[in-house]
Amino acid sequence: MGIVNDYISKIINNINNHIYDREKPWLRYYDRMPEKLNYYNGSMYDIVSDTAIKYPNYIALEYFDTKYTYKQLIQKIDNIAVSLKKLNVVENECVTICMPNIPEAIFLIYAVNKIGAICNIIHPLSSKQEIKKAIDETNSATVFTTDITYTKVKDLKLNYIIVCEISNSMKSFMQFLYNVKNKKNMNYDSNVIRWHDFIKQGYDIINTHVSRKQDSPAVIIYSGGTTGRQKGIVLSNLCFNSLVSQCEVVCKEAKAGNSILSALPIFHGFGLCICIHVPLSLGLKCILIPKINTLKINYIIKSKKPNLLPVIPSMLNVIVNSIPLGPKSFKSVKVILSGGDYLNDDLRDNVEKYFRKCGSIAKIQIGYGLSEATAFVSATCESVKSNNNIGIPNPDNLIKIFEPETDVEVGYDKIGEICVTGPSIMLGYINEDEETKKVLIKHYDGKIWLHTGDLGYMKEDGVLYYQSRLKRMIISNGYNIYPLELEEIINKCEYVSQSTVVAVKHKIKQEAPKAVIVLKKGVKLTSKIEKEIEDYCKKNIAKNALPCEYEFRESLPITKIGKIDYKELEKK
After folding, report:
1. Per-residue pLDDT tens over the stretch 358-377
2. Is the whole-model pTM more than 0.70?
3. Domain residues of the chain, as ranges?
4. Highest CATH level, class, for 481-571
């Protein structure tokens, strides 16, 4: 029996050594999820085209009252690819797309990819200067825009400007309503090509497909980046296609026949990858929303009935502060995918309770990532019971905590810079070699690590916790103060709806935290309320971290992607 027991012990030890790998302690939570995945060997277009062959009659896109099957989707893409070739667009040329979430933008992204060109995707609300910079640094000669943003590109030196009306894919009645509401009477310059004229060129039968490697560039999106200045992030075909395989095993509801609310914008990694490319590669229906109307978001969920709901925390905050629309209004929602910003436990609990009232048993699955990593590198799972975590790494991703801007690894439970290596890491910043070298760093292990600029720590079981942005940490009188921690405390005050903490100059401490607060509806700002909030903070926040000043506002400034714009507040 002793020999048998020793043999069994060895087997168990071998299993444990595999599961509780020092480099990958999170494997204990993988359950049936594989440690390694096989990734599609082709382009973004190729993977969606193969999906269309599997599910030709499934609905791929829904835009107001218009629907496109997967068969129709590929037909549209293929026709547009021909039209692009008629404009003499060549392999590796950058084509600029400055459009919201409308069907034509989706067709374009895959058509550009099919012919081996690169999508340069710009936020439609960007300033003229930002648009010009993005076009100039990519040498883009062809721009696709809409009637809403045409005036921002009309004076730029371009070979082609193609304009597509937002209402183009709407049916007659919806088009009429849109045109009345927007008082549309747009006059275009003579050099402009209207969308329907552009499309007419695409009905010739010519082969436009260009075979692309996994690591070939596919998309450029723009971000403040980990160093705070807008830069063009170059993402490969593998960046997007690897997330298809990862999302399929990480999110059980990401499967053919389900639907997803594609309201997050395509100019952002979360919107383009998680709301468009992943679902179209797996056979889901994308419900396109060109502009998020926060006042109507609950009505949209009720009427469109998505199964997957990708959101950012600011959207969730609006949802739970709205009057519920009935006990079955959110019944369709099976999973809430939260990303793009930090989601605290209080809001998370409130959201799940609110959705229960509305007939949904959905759980929130939090994803962590950044545009430089195609927006998604880790996700929460039900088997992890601790609070406030941002999950465990997706298969094939390694996440470690290093001393900021070094390759010196810190121990468990110690705060450092979150660094990632894996298949979804960007190729680099366009025309920014020095900036690229600052964030894509080869470590002693020979791997290229993305330094995220985020501070966090990892527990011994491999679960990841977010602390703050590296640049956002406040050093006051020698103490490290993390604004996120203060915000979580302040937001729990009975009078507070929202808050953010920013750094301000201080005569003695060099810098100190200042709290900017939005009160709950119905709470009027009085000296008494102000004193109670300050007393609450004194009671719950360490003396060295107490805000030196309190400011009360009607609302907080928001960035283009819906995050609280603390940088704008710091400037003021």
Report:
1. 999 999 999 999 999 999 99
2. yes
3. 44-236, 481-571
4. alpha beta
